[in-house]
Design a protein that fits this description.
Elements (H helix, E strand, L loop, with lengths): L1 E5 L4 H19 L4 H19 L3 E4 L3 E4 L5 E5 L6 E4 L2 E4 L2 E2 L9 H25 L1
Antiparallel strand pairs: 1-2, 2-3, 3-4, 5-6, 6-7
Amino acid sequence: MEILRLRNNPILPIITMVCASIIFFLNLLYLGNMMQVCLGAFLFLVGILNLVNPIAVLTDTELQLRNAIGMTLKRYRYKEETVEIREGKLFIGGKKLRFAGWMLRRAEWEALLDHMREVAEDGNAYRHLVD
């Protein structure tokens, strides 16, 4: 079951779409290279996908990192491994998650850290008894 979706800060996709629109229309109006017109259209599509699709999805048992298309690239099973939060950075199983804080919506990042703090307090306390 899905608990939380981490989405892009809307500023980056909007800037991408504005630049893509400028590339597209300037090359279309002034009979630029057709390759550059296609590049502008492609960048606009990438901006829309970054605006709509989440970067990560938190479920009951794992954190899934996704690309702009929505495909899951990496899974972190945080219920099975140790969870640590050091200096505002998230570590699952000793591996640092590769998130740039400025790319995410701040409220969603804080909600993820709060959830992971609860998991770390509940789960990590008993993990040494299992090992």
